[in-house]
Amino acid sequence: MKNVTKVMMASVLAVGTLAGCQTSPTVTAPVTQPITVNTLQSYDWQLVDAKRSNGQKVAQLFFDPAKPLMLSFNNYNGENRVTFKNTCNNMGAQYSVVNGNVQLNNVLSTMMACPEPQASFDTATMATVQGKYSFSTGANNVPMLTISNANQVAQFKAVNK
Questions:
Q1: Residue 156 has pLDDT above 90, yes or no
Q2: How far apart are CA 103 and CA 8, in angstroms?
Q3: Any idea what DSSP says for residue 57?
Q4: 34-40-42-43 Cα dihedral, nearest 10 degrees
């Protein structure tokens, strides 16, 4: 009887050990890359997601799926500039990369009286582009640009210029 008990306990232990050693599918974490002027200027950046700190989508940025917010980083006559595309007003800024952080300077916008929902889109754009910029590689190795601040996190995918 002692041998049967030992065999049963060993079987339970072996099954429990095997169950504990099962592997779950591996989820690949995004690979973070340093922010550089060259990477910013290599692509245009299309907004794919923006959520407030409470998890709600920033709906003002998605009123027209055919015209998503786009960021275009370029060098004009030796000056690094970013333009915010598909806004009602013409909007842009000088920028620099300092210690891996994107700093926007002299943010400019025309002052047209835009109707809703375009006016809210412009306002949400200005709130979205202010923050900490980071790069990563998303699904299918698509470069991703994330801008985060105390109020929201926005994700942009790289698209060819």
A1: yes
A2: 67
A3: B
A4: 120
95 contacts 74 by C-beta, under 8 angstroms: no
The β-bridge partners of 103 are 96
Measured CA to CA, the distance from residue 145 to residue 157 in angstroms comes to 6
The model's pLDDT over 22-71, given as tens digits with 9 standing for 90+, comes to: 444 444 455 567 899 999 999 999 999 999 999 999 999 999 999 999 99
The torsion angles phi and psi of 142, rounded to 5 degrees, stand at: -80, 125
Q: How many CB atoms lie within 10 A of CB 141?
A: 7
Model confidence, pTM: 0.79
Angle, alpha carbons 123-147-32 (nearest 5°): 170
